[in-house]
Write a structure and sequence with these properties.
Length: 408
């Protein structure tokens, strides 16, 4: 197996919390050397939680695998000098500080470009840097609210935000893709560049399917259909209860909205209701007719599901070519060995110095020529010696002085 596709590239990582850290973690999983810059003593904001102050958060473990941590006080002149040396030695800088923070530090794109003309300088913010909200801070829910998603999610009278940080992790992933593209262009044309992404803008793109119902029915506010099909009137399309009827005992069943699809007829065979097939039962003849008569459609499904748990129901339905998904929780995934196999490796068990063995999600894509290696998130300042001495050439005496001054 080869080394990671990004091996040989160095990333200066000035990210925090989820959005930016997800971006640099992807680059690290793909083999880049990621130097995570953290505040001396405290570390990155996402390391800390009120629940367990002395211990790295699980979120930090999940979003900072395969990185090296160095401590630098960017606000001390000596710290800034080290950062500038690292800009020279790096291929990429990634940051997601609040608007204006990098500029205040003197680390604008122009300043970094003057030091290293081929640098790829990547910034992630809540809002577009040329728009009217450019100075506003943002966490994930701000972006999902301002980027269409929440207006399309929930009950007709109640918008509901998503339970996972889709704007954070999604924007970080898109930024990683963009950085790799900029590196490819640099290989070809020899140019560095600035890459900016706003979480609101990413969410607008991610919500793109909402423009279909918007133009089709012109309804304002958007259709909000709970667990139904947001694009148009279709049934079956819902999350149905199964045995033993606990909090997460559900399966989602969705038959294609294409009227020529055989999925509904397949479902009728499985649930023992051939009388409801499209050609036989006018009320069930098209996805739209089934939506109009959805009580009849849903009751037939619910009757059948009374006898099955979500895993069995999913197996039976999918094997009969009916799209169905069990509602799987973190607990379901963490305790299922299928996610840990060598070929799959989407869940990994890492050994953390403070937390011991922890099972967390890894990297989804698979490569035929590369095996993604998983390393635990770094200890605060764990790579100080390696980076400051071996890469930048500082002596022990100089490092002691810098430490004394609180610069590292
Ligand atoms: C997420 C966010 C709202 C957090 O706001 P915050 O807690 O006030 O943190 P900020 O990033 O604004 O500020 C961090 C400060 O730490 C400083 N800092 C960061 N790393 C440092 C270091 N190594 N040494 C010294 N200071 C450091 C910054 O310079 C900044 O100082 P300033 O406020 O004087 O400019 C804000 O960072 C933001 O809007 N980021 C962009 C959008 C984003 O990524 N949001 C999702 C995060 S998951």
């Amino acid at each position: 197996m080869s080394k990671g596709p990004l091996s040989g590239y160095r990333v200066l990582d000035m990210t925090q919390f989820e959005s930016g850290t997800v971006c640099t973690e992807i680059l690290a999983w793909l083999g880049a050397e990621v130097l995570k810059v953290e505040r001396p003593g405290k570390g990155e904001l996402g390391r800390y939680s009120q629940a367990n102050p002395g211990v790295d958060t699980v979120g930090f473990l999940i979003m900072n695998m395969n990185k090296k941590s160095i401590t630098i006080n960017a606000k001390a002149p000596e710290g800034l000098e080290i950062l500038k040396k690292l800009v020279k030695e790096s291929d990429v800088i990634v940051e997601n500080m609040g608007p204006g923070s990098m500029d205040k530090l003197g680390l604008t794109y122009e300043a970094c470009k003057a030091i290293n003309p081929k640098i790829i300088y990547a910034s992630l913010k809540g809002f577009d840097q040329a728009g009217p909200y450019k100075d506003y801070p943002a966490f994930d829910p701000i972006a999902t609210h301002t980027g269409v998603m929440v207006s399309a999610t929930g009950l007709p009278e109640q918008p509901i935000k998503c339970g996972i940080s889709v704007a954070d992790s999604g924007t970080g992933t898109m930024l990683a893709l963009s950085i790799i593209s900029a590196l490819l262009q640099r290989e070809r044309e020899g140019i560095g560049q600035r890459v900016d992404i706003a979480m609101q803008d990413f969410m607008i793109c991610l919500s793109r399917s909402q423009w279909e119902p918007y133009y089709n029915n012109g309804k304002v506010p958007n259709r909000r259909v709970a667990n139904g099909m947001p694009l148009e009137d279709v049934a079956p399309s819902d999350t149905y209860p199964c045995k033993p009827f606990g909090l997460n005992d559900y399966v989602h069943i969705y038959c294609s909205r294409h009227p020529g699809s055989k999925q509904w007829d397949n479902l009728c065979d499985v649930i023992g209701r051939p009388d409801l097939k499209q050609d036989v039962c006018p009320e069930m003849s098209t996805p739209r007719e089934r939506f109009k008569n959805r009580e009849m459609c849903d009751n037939a499904i619910k009757d059948w599901l009374k006898n099955y748990d979500k895993f069995t129901a999913m197996d039976i339905l999918c094997k009969a070519d009916i799209p169905a998904g069990a509602l799987l929780s973190v607990d379901d995934i963490t305790n299922d060995p299928q996610y840990y196999t060598k070929d799959r490796n989407i869940m990994v068990e890492i050994e953390h110095p403070q937390r011991g063995k922890v099972k967390i999600p890894g990297f989804a894509p698979k490569f035929s020529e590369v095996e993604v290696e998983y390393k635990c998130s770094p200890e605060l300042g764990g790579a100080n010696e390696e980076v400051f001495k071996d890469l930048l050439g500082y002596t022990d005496a100089q490092l002691a002085e810098l430490k004394e001054k609180g610069a590292i």
